[in-house]
Amino acid sequence: MRVCVVGAGSSGLTTIKQLLDEGHDVTCYDKNADIGGLWLRDEGDEEKMKAYDDLYLTISMKLMAYSDFPFEGRRVFYRRSQYFDYLRRYADRFGLREHIRFGTAVTDLHRHGDSWTVSVEEHGVVRAEEFDAVAICSGPFKTPKTDIPGLDGFTGDIVHSAHYRNNERFRGKRVLVVGLGESAADVVREVGDVAESCTLAIRSYTWLLPRVYNGHRTTDHGPVRSHHHEMLRRSADYPFHLNTFWGRNRIVKFVFLAMSVVLGFTTTALGVFRSTIGPHIPIPEVNPFGQSVEPPMLDLNTPHTDENWQAVREWNHKSHPDGSWVQRSIFCKNVTFIPHIVSGKVVVNDSGIGHSDGNTVTFQDSTTGDYDIVLLCTGFSAQNISIGDLHVKDGNVRNLYKHFLHPEHQGTAAFIGFIRPLTGAVPTCAEMQARYFARVLSGKLAVPADIDERIGRDKEWEEHWTALSPTHPEAIPSQVLYLDSLAAEIGCLLPWWRLVLNPKLFIQVWFGSFNQSCYRIVGPHNRGRAALDDLYSEEIENRRDWAFNMSLLQLMPTHVHPERLI
């Protein structure tokens, strides 16, 4: 098919690649002068949504990389410029640029029979082109949320974090930061460094997860399939229905889970044995940020002190006011602002904004503050993601199949990358969505006949498990379970019998750190042995540090009530 891809950022690039793998004729339009989307920085981009100067990824490169171009080496956190360089190498490796028309904006889409008419503008000239299918990969970061109740009377400057580049504008100012997410955590820290005073206004507490564990490991070593299944499959308050290794076969499920119990005990015992008398594995001299492991850090420039650790724990206790200790909200994988909370450089007000008059803001708890600048870290509206005849009901991507495939248009329209795992990486999800879409267009994968029923079932399940992040319909409870369910349909999920017959592979896939190379061992466009080698590349660390995966559960929500962890 002739396919139009809108956007050449991290989601658009992998979409081009997966479509080309299936033999489609691809044309991508991007209004920028180069690839990269929000990762691209150039002159005159002050009014665009772009990654700020000193951004570090909140997910290690092992998980931010595509499964067909994996990152080699230990898990580390890249800076913005380093990740942009990775995207450039990916585009060059697979010849993606020749399919991209830069400086061209898509202005409209219309459906005519079995084809799409795409209107594009280039150098002020508008023209129309015909395609068989379209993939919107331009991302949700278009319309900043700036209509914040209570700030109508504020006469100082109001800035959205979409336009934040560095802290110079806030030097010596009285600053009110509204909202907290992963980027906002950096912003609060940077503003707190230079502002005369800084207040962080929030209405609820998000779950905080430091990026560094034990001074030298990335915390995202911790997510394992067994833990995700334990949290979400065995919960009594909502049924689990996503496809996984055993499908709907009860006998296979029993065999698989029995095997997991046996190998679980074996792996734990082996880990203890090796930790006791096994060979010593030297600790790296630097942590995943490239900083010395001494003194130990919780995060970038965030010392692992008793005060900082206790502040994180207290914050997390407030994040689940219903008493639940199961993951039900978006994680903030960034605690770099915590030292400023501890020292008092940043003051937190969690009551919400009441009203404002001039430079004075009054909070719901009747306290007041005078500010020169209000910095909004309030996210983006998803209401404007529709274009032309391609509508998303209520602007809610949960009304699409698996957040991407439009239930109408016979599988010829997709929104790739409009998804956010509570913990996990968007590019990895976008890649799997693109693989699915490409197979549908090739006729090798059929659109589910009961697609509306599946959408409704998935939507209810996700809304239940993301109840503490109700304004984020792009959120999914588990990247692992989501990707497994897509992989089962694509045909790239490892078959259960292969795992049962190969205990080493079973242990790595079920108990080892999640690695998306598991989806390139079998199935279409697999990498075979190379993918298996990448999966096993962390094997020694995983077995040696089995205790790490267990102790990490004390940071992540489980069925254990928080008071029992004090």
Automatic annotation (TrEMBL):
Classification via SUPFAM superfamilies: FAD/NAD(P)-binding domain (SSF51905)
Transmembrane parts of this sequence: 254-273
Keywords, sorted A to Z: FAD, Flavoprotein, Membrane, Monooxygenase, NADP, Oxidoreductase, Transmembrane, Transmembrane helix
Gene Ontology MF annotations: monooxygenase activity
Top-level taxon: Bacteria
Pfam families membership: FMO-like
Annotated family: Belongs to the FMO family. Belongs to the FAD-binding monooxygenase family.
Protein name (database record): SidA/IucD/PvdA family monooxygenase
Organism expressing this protein natively: Gordonia pseudamarae
